[in-house]
């Protein structure tokens, strides 16, 4: 959302970080829930015009889109039960990441989750 949204203090930092990661040929993955978040947030703030640019941006850097099934859904419940104050969305992302063997993320909202490293 920072990449295509309104000016925000995190926007410039994220652009720099992504540029560095792309230059280093880092592999990017995401899950279907990130696309749902773009849909949800864009509509919640009455900015449907952000959906296509958001999808295009994500499509341009993502090498693989991970899916979610009941295995990850149940794992998310276990994660949420063990990490205080962690959101359901965050727990679902972490469950998908763990299933795929991914441990690094761009989002600082995952700092409290053991085994997840934020790229800075």
Describe the model.
- With 120 residues, the chain is mainly α.
- It is built from five helices and four strands.
- It has helices at residues 9-23, 32-44, 51-61, 70-82, 88-100; strands at 29-31, 64-66, 104-105, 117-118.
- It has a two-stranded parallel sheet. Strands 3-4 form a two-stranded parallel ribbon.
- Helix 2 packs antiparallel against helix 3 (51-61).
- The longest helix is centred in the N-terminal third of the chain and has 15 residues, at 9-23.
- The radius of gyration is 15 Å and the shape is globular.
- It starts with 8 loop residues before the first helix and ends with a strand.
- The mean pLDDT is 89.
What's the gist of this structure?
With 120 residues, the chain is mainly alpha-helical.
Helix-strand layout with pairing:
Blueprint: H1 9-23, E1 29-31, H2 32-44, H3 51-61, E2 64-66, H4 70-82, H5 88-100, E3 104-105, E4 117-118
Helix pairs in contact: 2-3, 4-5
Main sheet: strand order: 1-2
* Annotation, overall tally of beta strands: 4
Instruction: Please summarize the sheet with the most strands.
Output: 2 strands, parallel
User: What is the approximate shape?
Assistant: globular
Please identify the structural class as seen in this structure: mainly alpha
**Percent range of helical residues:** 40-55%
**Average of the residue pLDDT scores:** 89
Annotation field: number of helices: 5
* Distance between the first and last residues' Cα: 17 Å
Radius of gyration: 15 Å
């Amino acid at each position: 959302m920072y990449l295509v949204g309104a000016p925000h203090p995190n926007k410039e930092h994220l652009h720099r970080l992504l540029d560095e990661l792309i230059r280093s040929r880092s592999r990017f993955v995401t899950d279907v829930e990130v696309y749902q978040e773009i849909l949800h947030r864009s509509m919640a703030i009455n900015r449907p015009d952000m959906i296509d640019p958001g999808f295009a941006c994500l499509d341009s850097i993502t090498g693989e889109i991970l899916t979610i099934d009941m295995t990850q859904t149940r794992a998310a419940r276990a994660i949420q039960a063990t990490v205080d104050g962690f959101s359901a969305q965050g727990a679902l992302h972490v469950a998908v990441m763990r299933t795929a063997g991914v441990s690094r993320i761009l989002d600082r909202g995952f700092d409290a989750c053991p085994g997840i490293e934020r790229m800075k």
